[in-house]
Amino acid sequence: MMIAKYRKQVGLSQVKVAELLDLSIDSISRIERGNIVPNVPRLFEFDELLSQLNAKDRAKLLTFIEAMVEWK
Asked: Domains of the chain, with CATH numbers?
């Protein structure tokens, strides 16, 4: 899933993301695999965490987040 790709690109582990978002590692893993869809505020927390991306990749991530919101 795209979230995992971007998380890795900015050098964050699942453990660190789980810690920063106050989630379990299992929850991060299930979100990245697409088994669960995070709520809208959680998606924006992901966006803030991954804000170190360049403009092109950030736009891709925002498009992905918007698609997740529409799907839910």
From this structure: 2-71 (1.10.260.40)
Position 34: which residue type?
G
Could you give the CA distance from residue 72 to residue 59 in angstroms, rounded to a whole number?
A: 20
| pLDDT, tens only, 5-31 | 878 887 888 998 888 888 899 998 998
Q: What is the pLDDT of residue 3?
A: 77
Tokens found for residue 58:
């950030």
CA distance linking residue 39 with residue 71, whole number of Å: 11
Find how far residue 7's CA is from the centre of its chain. 7
Q: 0.85 cut: is pTM over it?
A: no
> What's the CA gap between 1 and 4, in Å, rounded?
6
Q: How far apart are CA 72 and CA 68, in angstroms?
A: 6
